[in-house]
Amino acid sequence: MMRTNDGGPRRIVVISTGGTIASRWQGTGYAADASGSDVLATAPLPEGVTVEVVDLFNVNSSRMTSAHQLALLRTVHETFADPGVDGIVVTHGTDTLEETAFLLDLHHSDARPVVLTGAQRPFGTGDGDGPGNLYDALQVAASVRELGVLVVFDGRVHAARGTVKTQTLAADAFSDPSAERLGRVGFSRVDVERLPERPAPLALPDAALTAAPGAGGPGTAPLPRVDIVTHHADGDPLFIRAALAAGARGIVLEATGAGNATPEITAAVADAVAQGVLVAVSTRVPAGPLAEIYTGGGAVDLVAAGALLTGTLRAAQARIAVLAALLAEGDGAPDPARRSALLRRLLEGPVRVEPALATGGSRSASAVATRA
């Protein structure tokens, strides 16, 4: 389906957070320091679009923290409290854009769009891609509704869920290795090729109301620690135990294959679950779903130990799902069963796997068949 900006008045708010799109040469390398207004000045505006800029913070996205992301989430909700706003564009570094986009999407209940974009080449360079990406993002924000949070990059429109950075330097930096793009943008129109599958949105967590990047000390409630542990040849439970010792309330195991590890790691996962820690299992393989196929420390045993498989979500976004489930609990009494059920719902999404490989899986073969 085609969505066209009819040229009617559209009021878009650009929230600037830094990244390559705002990075200038610092003598030894690039770092984010250009303001949102400076970034906006490099791009033409689509017809009928007026823009207001919010300079929220200015960081390289490799330095992004949960506090930054929650402050952005709060700002998005505050911005949409104004019914005159038609959409939001967030300029963001590409390194952790996929995590921020997914966190926003899990908490996004408004019909109006939030569009994240950035650049692979720095601010002010002659061949910079930032101005074109920003123009496209504004065009999408002025044209679509009911699609949740989107990533717009290099003329492509992606759903937040499942989209990851797949190119370190190339202009087409993002894709969902397990799904098709959502659409494309160009020539003053947006073509939407499919609709995203999204779980019911979460309420704004209490932690977002007070999140302040860089704040700490007495009286500041720490955010839940969620760690990622990668399995590999010679992998052992050491880093799972280290995460527990550091106070992790959630762990994402980046397993091999379709979700496999070792009996020793499985035992450590069972210990973590017994301590009330949420454990999710993703994979280091770029594409495809997880499935309960193997025992001997494989996904069959990990699920039996209490871990949840992440479908087609990879580790960074799976970590965000775990964090969101923990934040949704707030300051209330811990309820491991409710928390686990919520995480399961957040992890559910498109499943593209042959039914023959889904036997014994955490999703039934019939459900797989109907979604394939």
From TrEMBL:
Task: List the Pfam families hit by this protein, alphabetically.
Answer: Asparaginase, Asparaginase_C
This protein's superkingdom? Bacteria
The UniProt keywords, alphabetically, are: Hydrolase
Among InterPro entries, the record links this protein to: AsnASE_II, Asp/glu_Ase-like_sf, Asparaginase/glutaminase-like, Asparaginase/glutaminase_AS1, Asparaginase/glutaminase_AS2, Asparaginase_C, L-asparaginase_C, L-asparaginase_N
Catalytic residues (positions): 20, 94
Q: Start and end of every L-asparaginase N-terminal domain?
A: 11-193
Tell me what reaction this enzyme catalyses.
Answer: L-asparagine + H2O = L-aspartate + NH4(+)
> So what EC number does this one have?
3.5.1.1
Look up keyword Hydrolase and say if it applies: yes
Q: Which residues form the Asparaginase/glutaminase C-terminal domain?
A: 225-328
What is the similarity comment for this entry?
A: Belongs to the asparaginase 1 family.
Question: What name does this protein carry?
Answer: asparaginase
Q: Which species expresses this protein natively?
A: Streptomyces narbonensis
